[in-house]
Design a protein that fits this description.
alpha/beta; 8 helices; about 40% helix
């Protein structure tokens, strides 16, 4: 059962990315020129995506991956090029359609052995089935600690090998940058992040995922101007 705090936050995130910021995200995730601040965010996201991809097998033929919060589909495209079947889901129908259009227009989509199924909806939907791997890049950073842990607990029951996700690391600098962000026009603001300490997150995940055979793997922080995010991988002990 999804808690009311998760559902409320999910609605705010959907409204922001599907209506308020869809055009801004379309530009940010393209090659179009952007301002200095957004350029640091673009560079940070590119580095984070490369980090998460480096933790996945080079050959994913026959494997299934959930791209939880796929945005405009850049990570899904790379994973499909490795031979995987990707279920790419996002709360925003607008961004999902953009991701689908970009993939269909990409010549690589006609050459790869993998595939992408683009869907709009909740990444926790049990109807999505089971996966070998799950990646949630910057799609859980707006949820508080209890909801983030519950989300990963839900996803872990349908994932066989690895889960990689990002969270907003707690730091004085990041908090200060968030305060500066409040000066931006309301249309440019995303739903507030939920910074958290990795040691507390580790304790709670160990009490949930650890009892189900999961153990922590790689961890990497990416900091690029106004973009700061921490990537963390968890693996099934038998994987």
């Amino acid at each position: 059962m999804q808690h009311s705090s998760y559902l409320e936050r999910r609605g705010q995130i959907e409204a922001y990315f599907d209506r308020t910021a869809a055009k801004a995200w379309e530009r940010l995730t393209s090659d179009a020129p952007v301002g200095r601040i957004r350029a640091t965010v673009r560079a940070g996201r590119d580095q984070m995506r490369s980090t998460l991809l480096s933790w996945l097998p080079a050959d994913m033929s026959g494997q299934r991956l959930l791209d939880a919060g796929c945005g405009t589909g850049a990570l899904a495209a790379e994973v499909a090029s490795r031979g995987a079947h990707v279920v790419a889901i996002d709360l925003s129908p607008t961004l999902v359609q953009l991701a689908r259009d970009r993939w269909e227009d990409d010549p690589m989509s006609q050459r790869v052995t993998g595939s992408i199924e683009f869907l709009s909806g909740d990444m926790l939907d049990a109807a999505l089935g089971h996966f070998d791997h799950m990646v949630a890049m910057d799609s859980l950073i707006h949820y508080d600690l209890p909801d983030l842990v519950r989300a990963l607990d839900t996803l872990s029951s349908r994932c066989e090998q690895t889960m990689a996700f990002t969270f907003a690391p707690h730091s004085a600098l990041l908090s200060a940058m968030h305060r500066v962000g409040r000066w931006f026009p309301r249309s440019d603001r995303s739903p507030s992040l939920a910074p958290m300490r990795q040691d507390e997150l580790h304790r709670q995940l160990s009490n949930t995922l650890g009892t189900q055979g999961w153990k922590e793997g790689e961890s990497q922080r990416v900091a690029s101007g106004f973009y700061t995010s921490q990537a963390w991988q968890w693996r099934r002990a038998c994987a």
